[in-house]
Amino acid sequence: MLFHKFVIIGAGKTGLDVCQRLASQGLDVLLVEANDIGGSYLFSYDYPKEILSSEAKQYVQVNQTYPNLNLDKDQTVDFLSQRVKKRVSYRYRKLKNILSKYENLEIIYGRAKFNTKNILSIAQKDGQEVNVAFEHCLICAGKSEMTLPNYKGIENVNLLHQHNSFFGEVIPESLAILGVSKQNLEIAEIFTNLGTAVTIFDSGAPEQILPNQDTTGINYILQNLLRKGIEFYFNLGIRKISNVKSEPGQITDDKEVTEDPLSQTPAQTTTLIQIEDDEENNYTFSHLYAEAIESYSESLGLELVGVKFSDKGIYCTSTGQTTQKNIWTFGSASNSFRKVSMDQQLHNFVEKYKSNNALEANLSRSLVMLNPVNNQNATEIIDFSFDYEYINLNRPVVTVGLPYKKAVGKYGPIIRFNIIFNDDKEGFVKVIYNEHNKQILGFVGTGEVCDELYTVFVSSLIKTTTIKDFENLIFNLGYKR
Questions:
Q1: 52 with 166: CB under 8 angstroms?
Q2: Which residues of 91-113 are buried (b: 16+ CB within 10 A; e: fewer)?
Q3: What does the pLDDT look like over 184-212, one tens digit per residue?
Q4: Which residues neighbour 89 within 8 Å (Cβ) at sequence distance 6 or greater?
Q5: Are 104 and 8 in contact (CB under 8 A)?
Q6: How far apart are CA 80 and CA 71, in angstroms?
Q7: How big is the CA angle at 9 (ends 3 and 300), to the nearest 5 degrees?
Q8: What is the pTM of this model?
Q9: Chain-centre distance for alpha carbon 351
Q10: Angle between helices 404-411 and 215-227 (to 10 degrees)
Q11: How do 119-124 and 129-139 pair as beta strands?
Q12: Residues 335-343: contacts with CB under 8 Å, at least 24 apart
């Protein structure tokens, strides 16, 4: 039987981060991964999406600079696919190289299951089974079950979702996206930048979308995306989704399918996706995108050791501790996952258990970056006691702290806001504050201003800065009301 002080289950984004934090302290660590280093973060969602978003922005710039270039779609698909795969492969090799430098880290590829609250059995890929005793186990494997959204007929059509869309292998002619969310807005712009005609359907009213964003930021997003040609349908109930055939000569998406007179073969019948709403209106698209619903599927034997869980994840305290005191969970495996507090959770955990002669902590995010913008070189861990949501668009939007409506709901009519801008930069800042004590409660940043001032927003909330002090600071940077 093996023994390790710390066992980490899952080598995705969260698992790699906590692994590096512990290993860099000189602590004895075992990392268990069922598939490969990087998980869905590297091989299906987060990182491929980041790459495709960057490439799509460059694609727009090339088309704007050379409007008569007429880039071939098949060549574009091939280029994007190769580009994403190459960068994923490079990141994978880099991660493996970083992990290999820790002599106090062992990696086992296999599926883990609890035998007792201090012993795991691991079914390795080579068919061998090994038992591992541990002091602390950290569950960082994410939610593994995916189900389709509840729309009639959706199971019968080819569906794009968050785990099959970002390797650049498909650029739809037209794309229907079901639901307005942070992720779906980012996806809509990625494909719009690549030349896809995008339409977003949502069953709610405009004022109900993006509950973590301020209304001012939402309006800014919608105006910019509408200008890019993205269409929105709100308050729309979807009755059913089905496949239809498009014959030559049929009008679909305002385009007529015709035979090429120079071609020796007739035009092919094309399968399209049709959405029918409650009013029996039909909308037809080449592709459909809907975010698959992810849930926690218990395969670790948690019941045997008294760890409570549901399909939403593993129950834990605000520090990540489960109902078993030596078993912890971080990231999306938790039923109360909040990105804003996970960084502090991991830092506190490492600080609590590092040895007296441990190496200096390496908190430079060389493996992964938890916070979204402008802190790639951060060396200080900050305690987020507030929410933030960053929407990564060509013209991004971030809400840090309380949006205006939530601030009014919490503190009443004493809430005020100022709009601040810079003549030389696109975008603006909305500062939400308490009129009585002048303390800032939240920020909304948009466009270039968002990326430039994001870290200022965060530090201002941490230090409970007043509106006067904040304005004095940024007015010296060329901003004004």
A1: yes
A2: bbeebeebbeebebbebbbbbbb
A3: 999 999 999 999 999 999 999 988 899 98
A4: none
A5: no
A6: 13
A7: 95
A8: 0.83
A9: 27
A10: 160
A11: antiparallel
A12: 335/296, 335/309, 335/310, 337/313, 338/387, 339/370, 340/384, 340/386, 340/387, 340/388, 341/384, 342/14, 342/370, 343/370, 343/371, 343/381, 343/382, 343/384
d(CA 373, CA 362): 19
Inter-CA distances, 357 with 6, 27, 390, Å: 17, 10, 38
CB burial readout 56-69, b (16+ within 10 A) else e? beebbeebeeeeee
DSSP code, position 157: S
- Angstrom distance (rounded) from CA 40 to CA 475: 43
pLDDT tens digit sequence for 411-448: 999 999 999 999 999 999 999 999 999 999 999 999 99
**Between the CA of residue 241 and those of 151, 153, 162, what are the distances in Å?**
7, 5, 19
DSSP designation for 439: B
Tokens of 362: 């390496």
Check residue 466 and report its DSSP letter: B
222-235 confidence digits (pLDDT tens): 999 999 999 999 99
β-bridge mates for residue 130, sequence order: 122
Give yes or no for residue 326 having a pLDDT over 90: yes
Which residues touch 123 (CB under 8 Å, ≥6 apart)? Answer: 110, 111, 113, 129
Which of the four pLDDT bands, split at 50, 70 and 90, describes residue 269?
Answer: very low
Closest to 386 in 3D by CA, of 465, 468, 332, 316:
465
Confidence band (pLDDT; 50, 70, 90) for 273?
Answer: confident
272 contacts 246 by C-beta, under 8 angstroms: yes
Domains of the chain: 2-144+296-353 (3.50.50.60), 147-292 (3.50.50.60), 388-475 (3.30.390.30)
Which stretch of 110-124, 127-141, 296-310 has the lowest confidence by average pLDDT? 296-310
**Chain centroid to CA 258:** 40
For residues 37 and 97, what is the distance between their CA atoms, to the nearest angstrom? 11
Cβ contact 467:401 at 8 Å: no
Structure token pair of residue 181: 């969310």
Q: Which of 13-27, 37-51, 151-165, 348-362 has the least mean pLDDT?
A: 348-362
At 297, is the pLDDT very low, low, confident or very high (cuts 50, 70, 90)?
A: low
Q: Helix count (H) and strand count (E) of the chain?
A: 10, 25
455 touches 376 (CB < 8 A): no
